[in-house]
Request: fold
Amino acid sequence: MAPAEQDALAVRQQLFHERVRECIICALLFASLYILCHFIITHFKKHTDFTAVHDDEDAAVNRIALGLCTFTLAVALGAVLLLPFSIISNEVLLSFPQNYYIQWLNGSLIHGLWNLVFLFSNLSLVFLMPFAYFFTESEGFAGSKKGIMARVYETSVVLLLLTLLVLGMVWVASAIVGNNAASRQSLYDLWEYYLPYLYSCISLFGVLLLLLCTPFGLSTMFTVTGKLLVKPRLLEDLDEQLSCTRLEEAAVSRRISSASCWLNLNVKLLWEQFFTIRSKRRKLELRHRASPWQRNLGYPLAMLGLLALTGISVLIVCFHVLELLLDDAAMPRGIQDASLGQVSFSIFGSFGAALQVVLIFYLMVSSVVGFYSSPLFTQLLPERQDTPLTKIIGNCVSLLVLSSALPVFSRTLGITRFDLLGDFGRFNWLGNFYIVFLYNMGFAGLTTLCLVKRVSWAIQTELIHAFGLHKLPLPVTRSRPPSNPS
Reply:
């Protein structure tokens, strides 16, 4: 064999080994996420939906739908970890450029992960989750033999009709918005044009949902932190409050025990008052048992951490707004080659990259908290061991929409400089300056408004309780009766 042929064979073998290694790494990562999501869904699912006591067929259908939901939730978790994993990989390659054991962290692996997340997100949103919902609701066509296959046939027909309807709507929308004559005449370019266009619309909806939920979630996290952690004592006699609450609880308890049929007492109202006082007494005892470190250090550090992360996010977005006005390179764009290990994506080096990862996770958590705290989606909040399968499907779809829009959300706001890889950078609205600029201004304005409003209210409430002003009687204004015109 000639030396040239040997070199070509060695190159092909190396490419084959690299591709096999990437497939093994992707499979291991997804298997880990799938197992984790299985335990999460099992923690919330309703056991009566999966028991085989009443109907084996319904139990089998629910298990199949549960597997599809687990797959979708694993894809959503992978979309959340996608951008942080890429940023950390770049910093690791920068720190150890010649290390043999981390050479598997290359651009080809990262680019493949982005493509797989994009593919599985489309597959879950367009096919798997609608199939899971219709599969659980189907009973088979009238007159057909009962069984799982009859439900599969009915679900497939309904899903096919829904697909034709959605594709027709996408075709009409693309014909109205786009000026391409080919887009108005044919549907042959389904994979290259219409599915990315449909996912672009879904991602735009997800990014808008993140814009609305994140500021609301930030303010909610301040409230939740204040309720979960023990607040410090500021001009407050906790022993006196606890003693008064115990005496009040004992007095109400004696009134309940001495109530009889000849006493004119509302026992139900007394029980409600008793439970309220007991809940207040338990909270005071919890604060009384807290150590000085937990009381004087935990709550201030948590609140300062939330304030710092929120303030840094707003400052980064404001700086990105100035960049948008001065430089076109600040616009989010997509690239096809992930050149890792060449330059850091933060001007502060590894510290800035770590801060970017923390901010990305912080914004994702705040968006999820805001989503479940909003009045429109409060009913979707899962309950431990009591969440029906339809609600699990709704939660998986919602989390997938939020998580798949997180990379676009972070790059649009300028939280990171890591450009969008693969089909994530092909969204049509990313090149529109007015949409990106207004989006950044909207996030900065809403977050600042919620932050100032929540912090000012919290400080005002704490000062009122510290000085005992909440115990003062409210002023009563008496309205003068109208005078007689006669």
